[in-house]
Design a protein that fits this description.
Blueprint: H1 7-38, H2 42-53, H3 60-67, H4 71-83, E1 87-91, E2 99-103, H5 105-123, H6 131-157
Antiparallel strand pairs: 1-2
Helix pairs in contact: 1-2, 2-4, 3-4
């Protein structure tokens, strides 16, 4: 167990907090730049990222849950992506009452090409890390993602500040 009163550890947490805020802000701004470059809304870029990270197509409800959008907003998002040719709505063969949102590979390739080009540069940030360090970074990212989902749910349940 770590000693929360250790001043060196407290300084490290403070430094990590500041760097985390910078990182998150830079990522949001980076996402905006990618969206601007592609002529998309930043939320649309992230929705495509989430859709293509999943092994199966998603329903609009699942997209709403993943993004925190209302089902109405998620429907409008899917409408925009469908108009742009990035996704298609398909009937669920297992449940005919449901419609699945499926990425259109040819159109997604446009986004992927931008991510791949930029990703090669981002990859160099990781080149000097050992496999153990890469596993630690991956573990941290996974846990941060899980915590973010929990914190989002918590925030949405709280009353809005006045």
């Amino acid at each position: 167990m770590t000693d929360a009163t250790d001043p060196r550890r407290a300084r490290l947490y403070e430094e990590l907090s500041a760097e985390s805020r910078r990182y998150l802000a830079s990522y949001v701004l980076f996402n905006q730049a990618v969206a601007d470059h592609l002529g998309l809304h930043p939320t649309d870029v992230q929705a495509l990222s989430l859709l293509t990270a999943e092994p199966e197509p998603l329903t609009v409800r699942q997209i709403a849950d993943m993004t925190g959008l209302t089902t109405g907003s998620a429907t409008r998002l899917v409408d925009r992506l469908e108009r742009g040719g990035y996704v298609a709505r398909r009937p669920d063969t297992r449940d005919r009452r449901r419609v699945l949102v499926t990425p259109v590979p040819e159109r997604i390739a446009r986004v992927t090409a931008v991510w791949d080009e930029l990703g090669r540069t981002w990859q160099t940030l990781l080149d000097d890390h050992s496999e153990d360090e890469l596993r630690a970074i991956t573990r941290h990212m996974r846990r941060a993602n899980e915590l973010s989902r929990t914190q989002i749910q918590r925030l949405r349940a709280l009353p809005k500040p006045e």
